[in-house]
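Shall we go through a protein fold together, starting from nothing but its sequence? Please make up or recall a protein chain and show it to me in full. Go ahead whenever you are ready, and we will take it from there.
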Amino acid sequence: MNSGFVPALGTPLDEKGNLLVKSYQAQIKRQLEAGASAMLVMGSMGQQASIKPSECIKVAKAAIEAVAGRVPIFVGAMDNSIAKVKERVAEMENLDIEGFVFTTPYYFASSSDQVINFVKAIAKSTKHSILLYDLPGVTQTKITYDMVIKMMQEIPNLIGIKSADLQMLRKLKLNKAISDDFIIMYSGLDTFDVAYKWGIDINLDGMIDCTPANFHKMYKALAIGDYKTAAVCLDNAVTLRDFFLKKDLWPAFSAAMNLLGFEGNFAPDYVTPASAATIEEIRVELQRIGEL
């Protein structure tokens, strides 16, 4: 994979929970035009845990069609048991994707041995590469450096990890025994520019969906060592995220995507939509940072 940003794509659904294909593919087109280096389909911001099973393969196929081979596509297939994950993977096994992405099971906290058993079993069930998705704030279980090393030794199709743990990723990056081909994606939004200075130059986040122009500009600045401009662009994304969190993340994110021209509900179906006043505030923020 090339250096660059990877949007964790939002998934637009109608009132019945069905994918709005045109909206989804329009979102992907905008990310490609901004210079995205890969796409994460059905990650946490893409409502993977909320999407109807019948829609999962439709989402993956719509992304493949829109990307048309221009960048790698990674597909989330997370769930709470080996059997359920295998079922998801089997349905998408013959798709033209770069690999599957898995969190740890997220209903109960898991021991390191349990996580390794889980990943090994699902890795054996697919011909595709797999990536680890470290998301302890949701799953209750942290993927540690030692766990990654052990899994790399035992799982031949493990090719990367996404995490907000900068110290762990830096340790992996500095480990000379690890191939340069091992994909390290950083998802700590506040310190993307710091990670870049450490050579961790692939960044993944759901906020990229709302701020592709800023990420395009940020990477151009980073490439020439203009960290001041890069910091401004990154601060724009961080400030917007903090605004979303203050107002309620999911409805604010969904409203922002609608304002950017992508119809549909980008939030779980039990979430109350943003108020008209909040939507207007979001419009002002998007205009302020140059995304609208």
Q: What stands out?
A: The longest strand covers residues 158-163. DSSP finds twelve helices and eight strands in the chain.
